[in-house]
Amino acid sequence: MSLNFSENLVEEATGKENAANFSSTIADTSASSDSLFFVKGEQAIPVNQLPQSWQNIHAGKSNTKLSDPEAYVKMAQLFFHKMSSGDVDLFNDSEKLGHLKPAFCEIFGKLAWEALDFYGEDFKVDKYPDFDSIEQELPPGEDYAERQKIVEIGKALFAEFGYDLPASFYQVHLAPIYREDVSEVRPLRFSEEDKNNARAWDASLHGQKVFPIQLMVQSISSKHGFFQEHGCGCNHAMTRVGVTDTSFDYQIRPEMRKTWIRDFIWTTWYEYAFFKFVPVTRFLVS
Ligand SMILES: [Zn+2]
Prior knowledge:
By secondary structure, the protein is mainly α. Helices cover 51% and strands 7% of the residues. It has twelve helices and five strands. The strands form two sheets. The protein has a three-stranded antiparallel β-sheet with strand order 3-5-4. A hairpin with a 4-residue loop joins strand 4 and strand 5. The chain binds zinc ion. Zinc ion is lined by residues 202, 205-206, 230, 232, 234. The site of zinc ion (ZN) has 6 residues, from helix 10.
């Protein structure tokens, strides 16, 4: 496997220290079979080859409150291995495309690193919104009550998922309170105000393709008079529950809770990685 990352490119996204770590990670992995590591029979990257933030989570030195940090670290080890060494169906099912594998590893190894680097930070306690002070600082106005409902939904989501979902999951939910109208539809990718957050926010919304997580979000929102909308021109909005709509109650079955949360995290990571890789057109958002 040959992975010659441009230091400039890596630096741009992850900072110089991490760029150096990334290069040595790839060098170590290809140079030594001693570094082979397995999670339940599947090959993974050793912890010491993950971004520093994940090494800190593993060592208990990160200010995170994950209920099962070791499981998240194992997911990071698996994720980075699969993306940086092309351990995906595209190559595993057939050798025909083998000649493309080095390019895949180079591109997706870099994107996976960016994703893990981001989420290793995004799980830190100080990244999460302070719902009470946000509520206290809501500007008075005719739609004050609606903005307050959005904050209440955020609080209820946090009561449900806490620090097991990343800070950006809550931030994208709160975003409509800072819009002119809480129900304004925003094309995240193309909006000046949102473009710096679009990658993480879109990943978080796409993570809700894990249906039980979305059902929970919509159930909580509906009880406060809203539904969350997202289409894949990347429009995002909280829309008011109409007179003919009805709120609904949904609970995640306790025995499936861990599974759905892990599915959400995994999906969010690859959606973050793929964000710049998907075809986009303004035709879908106009
Ligand atoms: Zn989207």
